[in-house]
Amino acid sequence: MTDSTRLNLADEIVLGRDFMTLSQHVLSQVGTFSPEAYDLSALMGRIGLAGKTIARHLSRAGLVENVLGVTGEVNVQGEAVKNMDRYANRVFLRAFEQSGLVCRLASEEMEKPYYIPENCPIGRYTLLYDPIDGSSNIDVNLAIGSIFSIRQQEGNDESGEALDLLQSGRKQIGAGYILYGTSTMFVYSLGKGVHAFTLDPSIGEFILSQENICVPERGSVYSVNEGNFWQWDEPMREYVRYIHRQAGNTARYSGALVADIHRILFQGGVFLYPGMVGHEDGKLRLLYESAPLAYLMEQAGGRATTGKQEILDVVPDRLHYRTPLIIGSSENVKVVESFLN
Ligand code: AHM
Ligand code: MG
Questions:
Q1: 172: which strand partners?
Q2: Which of 176, 210, 244 is the last residue before a domain boundary?
Q3: Where does a domain end: 177, 210, 243?
Q4: pLDDT at residue number 229
Q5: Does 197 share its domain with 273?
Q6: Which of 154, 169, 176, 264 could be disulfide-bonded to 312 (CB atoms 3.0-4.6 Å)?
Q7: Which atom in ligand 1 lies closest to the alpha carbon of residue 135?
């Protein structure tokens, strides 16, 4: 080996990091070279492809048509559909057509699950997702995300009722999110810790940036929309008054769950979206928002609860079921609970 071809230690470390791609990492997590391992690796790669496509579209917001603004439609949740919501929903659907991986997808933007019949004979999985989380941030160029949850496909329920999905979050076999922030990050778990990847746009790959993330046991951040203060029950108001009286606490609320939870995952603290007058179950949807984020938070050593029950134990009675959400560092969640119970 000549001097010019020999790698020094620093180069080797950099190259080692550069070469741990998302799909390689998934294979190493599953630990075998079985068909299931390759399927999960391919599935995660397709979610990553959807994320890269959405990130590219977002990067040209304001320069090309139909990135900003609303479509004029209202979705199943009664919310105005943004152009980006519709685009991102379709990107996920297209990413899985003819993939043979996923038989059925269900999202915040579709009333009923979407079947890809040609995939079903071999597609073992259902993908639940929120294509754009934090939609109110799109038009002002602030951080947003996509959330996903992977479940085993059980049975062949083409009636569209998706009764097999009405099971607890413990049935998830993987979950994660993509954060479209100052960089694009992909954070996932397959039940063996939580791992973060950063998109290197020069090679178009998600490269491992942090493995086995552990949420601090406690943190100073509380993240809640205090504009709803008078819509909450008294115990929740009392908790927030208590937080105000303690020195060292700091409020951070971005309007995008993914961004707020990402901060808490790395730095500790608690995110809350409580029930409100007339909306006792709050705003967030269980199957494709709260449950996947709860799965990640538990994997990182934190907790997620409705205030009465662990989020992962909640069994929904419909696809777009909502729950209150209290999620983050275990000590912070315990303090919230001490006020609620
Ligand atoms: P969305 O998926 O339609 O964007 O709604 C979910 C978002 C969360 O990201 C965020 O935490 C919350 O809604 C913000 O709601 P609010 O404006 O009521 O505080
Ligand atoms: Mg959402």
A1: 151
A2: 210
A3: 210
A4: 98
A5: no
A6: 169
A7: 4
Clarify whether residues 245 and 107 are in a common domain: no
150 lines ligand 1 (CB under 6 A): no
The whole-number average pLDDT for the span 24-35 is 88
Best probe residue, ligand 1, of 79, 135, 270, 327 (max atoms within 8 Å of C-beta): 135
What is the extent of the structural domain holding 156? Answer: 3-210
Q: What is the pLDDT of residue 35?
A: 85
Select from 182, 152, 173, 179 the least CA-distant residue to 164: 152
Number of domains comprising the chain:
2
Domain membership flag for residue 215: no
Mean pLDDT of 127-155: 93
Q: What pTM does this model have?
A: 0.93
> Cα separation of 117 and 136, whole Å?
34
What's the pLDDT tens digit per position in 95-119? Answer: 999 888 898 999 999 999 998 888 8
Please report how many Cα atoms fall inside a 13 Å half-sphere around the Cα of residue 184, on the Cβ side: 22
C-alpha 146 to ligand 1 mean position (Å): 12
Is residue 117 located within the same domain as residue 29?
A: yes
What distance in angstroms lies between residue 11's CA and the mean position of ligand 2's atoms?
Answer: 41
Nearest ligand to the C-alpha of residue 129? Answer: 2
- Whether residue 93 contacts residue 140, with contact meaning beta carbons closer than 8 Å, is answered with no
Whether 168 has a pLDDT exceeding 80, the answer reads yes
